[in-house]
Design a protein that fits this description.
By secondary structure, the protein is mainly α. It has helices spanning 24-29, 37-53, 61-97, 101-113, 118-129, 134-147, 153-167, 171-181, 193-200, 225-235, 241-244, 259-262, 279-290, 308-313; strands at residues 4-8, 14-18, 268-273, 297-302.
Length: 319
C-alpha cells in the first residue's frame, strides 16, 4: 500500500508526495500517535538547523569527517521533514477549526474509562443539535452501548428519535443495522466492560507515546482487544475463562515446533482481519514485531483498511 497525499509548495502549487518507507522520516513517524508528531518534527528541524550552523566550527580533519556524516544525513532529511511538518501543521489547523474535535476525544476517553455522567449525554445531544456528522454521533452512542451493556431505555429512545428527526427518516434502517450487529442496543443486565478492561489490560494510561512501551500507545492509552488476544495467545493460550467469556465463537489449535524455530529463526505468523483493520491496529502489530525479544514476525492481511467513519458508513443508509 503506497498512500499518496497532496500538499502545496511555496508557489501554491499542489505537489504529490508518495508515502513509503523509502522516506526515512515517514518510516520513523508513520506508527506514532498523532499527538507527538509535531513536537518530534520540530526537534528534527532544530537538529538540522544546528547541523548547518556547525559548518564553520570544525577545526581538524577528523572533526570535519564526522561533521560531513551528520551533514549528509541532515541534508537528506531536510526536505522530507519540512514536508511532513507542513502537513502536520495543516492537519492541526483543520482539526482546530472544528470546536468539537478535542471535546469528542475527551468524551471518548471518559466513556472508555467508565466516567460517564449526564454531561456525556448532553454533549451527544449538542452534536445532534449542531448537525455534526452522523458518524461522530453514532460512534459515541455505540461506544456507550458496548461499554455499558447497552443504553438505558428512555435515553435510547430519545436519541433514536433525535437522530431520525435531525438526519432523516432513512436512518431508521441505519439504527436497525447497528442494533442487528449488537453495536447499539438497550441496556440489558450488568456491564462486563470493567472486568474486560482489567482482565486484558485494555487501559494503560502510563504508556509512553513517544517511545512506546506497550501496544496501547497506538490509541493514546487504549490497547485494541484484537492485539491483546494475540499477546494472550502466545503467553497463556486461549483456553482460559477470560477468552471464553468473550462474545462469539473461537477455535484454538496448537501446532508442533517446526524447522524454522529449531534453527533459531522467527516464524512468520499471518494475522487475518476479516472485515477490515485500522491503521492503529497495524501500528500495534509493528510494535509487537519490533519489541525486544520478539519471537515471531507478524504479517497483517485484511480485506481493507477502515476507520470508525468508513466502518459506520458501511452500515448507514442514504449516506
Amino acid at each position: 500500500m503506497n498512500p499518496k497525499i497532496l500538499e502545496k509548495d511555496e508557489s501554491d502549487r499542489e505537489v504529490q508526495l508518495l508515502l513509503t518507507s523509502a522516506d526515512t522520516v515517514f518510516h520513523e513517524i508513520r506508527n506514532l500517535n498523532f499527538c507527538v508528531l509535531k513536537p518530534l518534527l520540530l526537534e528534527k528541524l532544530n537538529f538540522i538547523d544546528m547541523t548547518y550552523k556547525e559548518r564553520d566550527q570544525q577545526r581538524t580533519i577528523d572533526e570535519l569527517t564526522k561533521y560531513m556524516k551528520r551533514f549528509k544525513q541532515a541534508h537528506k532529511e531536510a526536505a522530507s521533514v519540512q514536508n511532513h511538518l507542513n502537513l502536520a501543521i495543516y492537519i492541526t489547523s483543520e482539526t482546530t477549526k472544528n470546536v468539537f474535535f478535542n471535546q469528542t476525544l475527551d468524551v471518548e476517553h471518559a466513556i472508555i474509562m467508565g466516567e460517564t455522567d449526564q454531561s456525556t449525554f448532553d454533549y451527544i445531544e449538542r452534536l445532534i443539535g449542531e448537525m455534526e456528522p452522523l458518524t461522530t454521533v453514532l460512534r459515541l452512542l455505540c461506544l456507550l452501548s458496548v461499554t455499558q451493556s447497552g443504553i438505558k431505555g428512555k435515553i435510547f429512545d430519545f436519541f433514536r428519535r433525535e437522530i431520525v428527526q435531525t438526519y432523516g427518516y432513512q436512518h431508521l434502517l441505519t439504527l436497525y443495522n447497528l442494533e442487528k450487529t449488537g453495536l447499539l442496543r438497550r441496556q440489558e443486565g450488568k456491564s462486563s466492560w470493567n472486568q474486560l478492561k482489567q482482565t486484558f489490560r485494555l487501559i494503560y494510561e502510563d504508556v509512553n507515546q513517544r517511545d512506546p512501551n506497550d501496544i496501547a500507545y497506538a490509541y493514546a492509552g487504549y490497547a485494541p482487544l484484537s492485539l491483546r488476544l494475540i499477546e494472550t495467545l502466545y503467553k497463556t493460550g486461549w483456553r482460559s475463562p477470560a477468552v471464553a467469556a468473550l462474545p462469539g465463537e473461537y477455535y484454538s489449535s496448537s501446532y508442533p515446533v517446526d524447522d524454522v524455530e529449531r534453527e533459531g529463526r522467527k516464524p512468520i505468523v499471518m494475522l487475518f482481519f476479516v472485515g477490515g483493520v485500522t491503521l492503529g491496529e497495524v501500528a500495534a502489530v509493528r510494535y509487537l514485531n519490533n519489541v525486544e525479544g520478539a519471537s515471531r514476525e507478524f504479517v497483517v492481511a485484511s480485506t481493507h483498511i477502515i476507520n470508525s467513519a468508513t466502518f459506520l458508513k458501511a452500515l448507514m443508509t442514504g449516506s
